[in-house]
Amino acid sequence: MSSSMTLTLSVVVSFANMAEVINQLVSAERVLEYVHLTPEAPLKVEYKLDPNWPKSGNIQMNGVVVAYKNGPNVLKDIQLNINSGEKVNNINN
Q: What's the predicted TM-score (pTM) here?
């Protein structure tokens, strides 16, 4: 019985080691694929914003409803007014 347990354990450890080697080889292949990707074109920005923008502003939400995709509404009828310069913190229970 002892030799059969040892053989079983050896097979399990061998498969685990083989799986780890395969994972490492796939990781190396993935890195090689990324190295040979053609770079994307540079971002073209056709407008310039004032570096001081926005100087002030506020955020208003009236009657906002938030739901999961194809799911129920989880936040209903949100009324919110954040004035310029105010700090906001969200606390969940």
A: 0.36
